[in-house]
Design goal:
single chain; 7 helices; 7 strands; elongated
C-alpha cells in the first residue's frame, strides 16, 4: 500500500516537472509547401500519396487552363479570317400608289413596296448580307425605321455605308448571288440594268455580281402579287 502511494506521488511530480519545461513543437506538413519544391525532380522523393496528389493537382490545373483557352477562342470570333460568307433576306408588301424600285432602278408597275425608306428589297437584302458576313447588326438596327431621317431615304445610302464598313474591316467583295421572288412584273427586260447599277454601288466588277428572278407559282402573297422578296449570299475576301 505504502509503495503504491510513493509510486503515484513520483509519477505526479514527474508530470509537473515536465509540464514546466519549455517544449519546442514543430508541425511538419504532409506535403512540402510550393517554395520547398525548387525543382520538379524534388517531388520524386516524396511519399507516394504526396506524389499522386501533386500529379492530380497539376493535371487538373492544366485541363482547366486548356478548357478556358478553348472557351475564350470559341466566344471571340477571329478578325483575321481569309474570307467571310453572309446571307440576307428581305420582304415587302406591294401596294398601289408606291414606286417599285429594285436595285436602284425604277420598274414600271401598278404596285410598289410599302416601306419606311424607298423599299428597295434587293438593296436591303444585299446590305443585310454584307453586315451578316462582317458579324454586324442587321439593317434594321443600324438604320431603324423609327428614325425620321430615313423616311423615304434612297437605299443606296444604306448600301454605301455597308460597303464602307466592309472596306474598313479589310475586306472586298468576292462575289454576290441574289434571287428576287415576285409574280409580276417580269424582270427579264430590267435585269441587266439592275445588275449594272448594283455593281457600281458595290464598287465591284459586274462579273462577280449575279442576279436571278423567280415567280412563286401563284402561291401565297408572293404568288398573288401582294409582296416581293429577295435572298442574297455574299462572299467577302480579305484584302
Amino acid at each position: 500500500m505504502l509503495c503504491s502511494q510513493i509510486s503515484n506521488s513520483m509519477a505526479f511530480a514527474s508530470q509537473i516537472c515536465l509540464s514546466r519545461l519549455p517544449i519546442k513543437t514543430t508541425v511538419k506538413p504532409l506535403c512540402p509547401l510550393p517554395h520547398q519544391l525548387p525543382s520538379i525532380s524534388t517531388h520524386l522523393n516524396l511519399l507516394p500519396s504526396c506524389r499522386q496528389r501533386l500529379r492530380s493537382t497539376i493535371t487538373a490545373a492544366t485541363t482547366a487552363a486548356v478548357e478556358f483557352r478553348r472557351q475564350t477562342s470559341a466566344d471571340t470570333p477571329s478578325k483575321h479570317l481569309p474570307f467571310r460568307v453572309g446571307h440576307g433576306f428581305d420582304l415587302h408588301r406591294l401596294e398601289p400608289g408606291y414606286p417599285l424600285i429594285i436595285g436602284g432602278i425604277s420598274i414600271p408597275h401598278e404596285r410598289g413596296c410599302e416601306a419606311h425608306s424607298d423599299g428597295d428589297v434587293l438593296l436591303h437584302c444585299v446590305v443585310d448580307a454584307i453586315l451578316g458576313a462582317l458579324g454586324l447588326p442587321d439593317i434594321g438596327q443600324i438604320f431603324p425605321d423609327s428614325d425620321p431621317k430615313w423616311k423615304g431615304a434612297a437605299s443606296s445610302v444604306f448600301i454605301k455605308e455597308a460597303v464602307r464598313l466592309m472596306h474598313e474591316a479589310g475586306y472586298e467583295l468576292g462575289n454576290l448571288d441574289a434571287t428576287l421572288i415576285l409574280q409580276k412584273p417580269k424582270l427579264s427586260p430590267h435585269k441587266e440594268a439592275i445588275r449594272t447599277n448594283l455593281s457600281e454601288l458595290l464598287g465591284a466588277d459586274p462579273s462577280v455580281v449575279n442576279l436571278k428572278a423567280k415567280t412563286h407559282e401563284k402561291v401565297d402573297s408572293l404568288g398573288e402579287n401582294r409582296s416581293i422578296a429577295a435572298h442574297t449570299v455574299v462572299l467577302l475576301m480579305k484584302k
